[in-house]
Specification:
The complex is a heterodimer of chains A (246) and B (236). Chain A has 246 residues and is an alpha+beta fold. Chain A has six helices and ten strands; from the N terminus they run αααββαββαββαββββ. Chain A has two domains: 4-59, no CATH class; 69-238, Alpha-Beta Complex (Sulfite Oxidase, Chain A, domain 2). Chain B has two domains: 19-115, no CATH class; 118-221, Fumarate Reductase Cytochrome B subunit. Classes of the chains: A alpha+beta (246), B mainly alpha (236). Chains A and B meet through α1, α2 and α3 of A and α2, α3, α4 and α9 of B.
């Protein structure tokens, strides 16, 4: 599957801007008195990478599994939520409800796939919480879904394992820490704004995790797995912090 | 061996000039300068991805920190934000740990009490008027009331910027702090103006250090330049 990440920007405008940037002093150049930005040196990248791993540990330490994300009133919830993905809205995966199966894998006892009918029959709860994007914007929305923790328990997942990973219909992938997976507000969101979640927000379901940045809230989830091996993620492999907790 | 000790060994006669800035303070000053520069450079790029203010304003990429954009797209398939965030959340440890050491040492050593206090309104008014008429004499090693207020002010601005930054970073775990700053969205605005206050201080601070270079020498070597070069004194 191709990932149209590079098509996000008009190419020509981008090239002109880059030529200008290359010929201009950057802050890094001022520090290093060299022609290129210090950020791009391999040693600097290693240090930044190491610091990001350190920040994973610091954030895991700060995470309190009983602390709930603030909730808001019905009137504060946005219905026309921002569409956000690494591809245009026309490329949104449109999964057929009848054919959909949620695959389970890894340290899970009962790995039989789940139909949408069975998933939708799970006990559900609503939340009105703030979605915070790594870019800085935030939006309050109302989601309805089944707590991921009870689902993992039901299928006999090893709850002492370290990670819960996901694969999505658009090629997106990633993982979260087990304490966050078991957090009471982490849900498999089947509904948005009192309706079935539409395709552009992740039909048949999105993992709604109000204690994580937006990019750790995957849409169009097709596989969940439990593992002890650290996994990367679509944006994490592009330099973003893995834990990314709020 | 400390820089002071080196100086003592190499000098023919004992150096009569007092040490204005002990080595610990000089190290903390320059570490702080580095941390602030990294935080502002990366913060400007982060700001550009989704400006907190409803204004058509952004920082030119050339003055932001976070790597070459085309390289970032070619190597990482990412448009240049990840690096800026990595810098910001890396340099924050240097900023916070260094500042904490400075505040603790500043209190315990008496540096704050001796050099930044007392601060009286009448003294501030007199010194400010003198400064505006270019009649304020700079005495090395002794801060006037305007300087004292600026140093307290920038310390306050840095602390507010750190706290508002923490409430943006952890609006769930530190939600009480985030509410104190008026919620997630307003905390971003506070964070921006905290940065602006620090930048304002840096402009004044660096300009004055360049106007009175002996202060810069003292922050590097610990002591001012040779007595004969000091302002207000005649060469022998």
């Amino acid at each position: 599957m191709t990932r149209p990440v590079l098509e996000r920007k008009p190419l020509v405008a981008g090239i002109e801007r880059r030529l200008f940037l290359r010929q201009t002093l950057s802050l890094g150049a001022l520090v290093m008195l060299s022609g290129c930005d210090i950020s791009d040196q391999d040693q600097v990248q290693s240090v930044l990478h190491w610091l990001s791993r350190w920040n994973d540990r610091a954030q895991a330490f700060l995470f309190n599994r009983r602390r709930l994300a603030p909730t808001y009133s019905e009137s504060e919830a946005v219905r026309d939520f921002r569409y956000n993905a690494y591809f245009p809205i026309a490329a949104v995966p449109r999964l057929a409800a009848a054919d959909y199966r949620l695959e389970l894998s890894g340290l899970i006892e009962d790995k039989r796939p789940w139909t949408l009918e069975r998933l939708y029959a799970l006990p559900q709860q609503s939340q009105i919480t703030r979605h915070v994007c790594v870019e800085g914007w935030s939006m309050i929305g109302k989601w309805r879904g089944a707590p991921l923790g009870s689902f993992l328990q039901r299928v006999g997942a090893d709850l002492s394992a370290k990670y819960v990973g996901y694969y999505c219909a658009d090629g997106y992938y990633g993982s979260i820490d087990m304490p966050t997976a078991l957090h009471p507000q982490t849900v498999m969101a089947f509904g948005f704004a009192n309706e079935t979640i539409p395709a552009k927000y992740g039909f048949p379901f999105k993992l709604r995790i109000p204690t994580k940045l937006g990019f750790k809230n995957p849409k169009w989830v097709t596989t969940l797995y439990v593992t002890n091996r650290p996994t990367g993620g679509f944006w994490e492999d592009r330099g973003y912090n893995w834990f990314s907790g709020l | 061996m400390t820089a002071d000790a080196i100086h003592r060994v190499s000098a023919r006669a004992p150096d009569a000039r007092p040490v204005l800035h002990p080595i610990s303070r000089r190290i903390m000053h320059w570490l702080n300068a580095l941390a602030i520069l990294l935080m502002i450079g990366s913060g400007w790029r982060i700001y550009d991805y989704y400006p907190a203010l409803p204004l058509d304003f952004g920082f030119p990429y050339a003055y932001t920190l976070g790597g070459d954009l085309s390289l970032s797209e070619a190597l990482n398939n990412e448009d240049g934000l990840a690096n800026a965030l990595a810098w910001h959340f890396g340099a924050m440890w240097l900023l916070v740990l260094n500042l904490a050491a400075y505040v603790v040492i500043g209190f315990l050593s008496g540096h704050f009490r001796r050099d930044f206090l007392p601060l009286r309104f009448s003294a501030f008014r007199d010194d400010l008027l003198a400064a505006l008429r270019f009649r304020l004499v700079h005495r090395l090693g002794e801060y006037n009331a305007v300087q004292k207020l600026l140093y307290w002010g920038v310390l306050f601005a840095i602390i507010i910027t750190i706290l508002s930054g923490l409430s943006i970073w952890k609006p769930v775990q530190l939600q009480a702090l985030t509410s104190m700053f008026g919620g997630y969205e307003f905390a971003r605005i506070v964070h921006f103006f905290g940065m602006a206050a620090i930048v304002g201080f840096i402009i004044v601070h660096v300009s004055l250090a360049l106007l009175v270079p002996s202060t810069l020498v003292a922050m590097i070597l610990g002591r001012g330049p040779h007595r004969a070069h000091q302002a207000g004194e005649k060469r022998p």
